[in-house]
Write a structure and sequence with these properties.
Length: 262
């Protein structure tokens, strides 16, 4: 299926690894010019080569998504090199994993800055141009804990739910301008973050990481952990011309794990 986004310019935050990389590659496969940022120059160089191998223009900028000035610099570099941004994929590292009793004010403040405010800042940067062109796609990569909270992920559960609220309100505000805003809620997908959480959880439960993943997979209706490429494919669709009537939604990609009706 041709998703109708060939030639569009996309920014993918934290795009050198994991879900960000998967999103960047999925968009490049559809013919988008892609700009990625990340903290590791080596990882960025590798993904830039992968993107260019798909026949598209690519830019890789060393930037920390928790720093407002880095986001401005990345946005300016992208528009200078590739043109006006039409697609934004916000992607952030998860905040500290801990139960409520073990979290300090500093942990909460760091979580807000690294999980919520950077999404606000990125959206603020691209929306004026999208409004001028009367077309845009914003997809926030969040987590299934927005719908099914988990005690060990207290900060993430709280802030991801907040991002769902931001997604809905921003979608209502921008729909008249031809812009869609959606959230992508991945379940258990094999990334560095998933491995880190597995190590934390297995230690807390007194089991091995392998035992943890076995239990985790058994609890998922599909019977397995997801792959980043499966999430990337859904993100590409949310950015497509065919998805123009889909906005304000929190879309689960979790193998059927979350059992709630809504």
């Amino acid at each position: 299926m041709d998703l109708g986004i060939k030639g569009k310019v996309a920014m993918v935050a934290a795009g050198s690894k994991g879900l960000g990389r998967a999103a960047a590659l999925a968009l490049a496969a559809e013919g988008c010019a892609v700009s990625v940022c990340g903290r590791s120059a080596d990882s960025l160089a590798a993904v830039k080569a992968e993107l260019e191998a798909l026949g598209v223009s690519a830019l890789a900028v060393v930037a920390d998504v928790t720093k407002a000035e880095d986001l401005v610099r990345w946005h300016e570099a992208t528009e200078a090199a590739l043109g006006p941004v039409q697609i934004l994929i916000t992607n952030t590292g998860g905040p500290k994993a801990a139960i409520f009793a073990d979290l300090s004010d500093g942990d909460w403040a760091a979580g807000v800055d690294s999980t919520l405010m950077n999404v606000v800042r990125m959206s603020r940067l691209v929306l004026p141009g999208m409004r001028v062109r009367q077309w845009g796609r914003i997809v926030h990569i969040t987590s299934l804990v927005a719908k099914q909270p988990y005690p060990l992920l207290t900060i993430s559960s709280t802030l991801r739910a907040g991002l769902s609220g931001l997604t809905r309100t921003l979608a209502m505000e921008t729909a008249k301008d031809g812009i869609t805003v959606n959230a992508l809620l991945p379940g258990h997908v094999m990334t560095d973050r998933q491995l880190h959480l597995a190590e934390v959880k297995s230690k807390a439960e007194g089991i091995t990481v392998e035992q943890h993943f076995s239990r985790q997979a058994a609890a998922i209706p599909t019977g397995r952990i997801g792959q980043p490429e499966e999430v990337g494919a859904v993100i590409a669709f949310l950015c497509s011309g065919q998805a123009s009537y889909l906005t304000g939604q929190s879309v689960l990609v979790d193998g059927g794990l979350v059992q709630g009706t809504f």
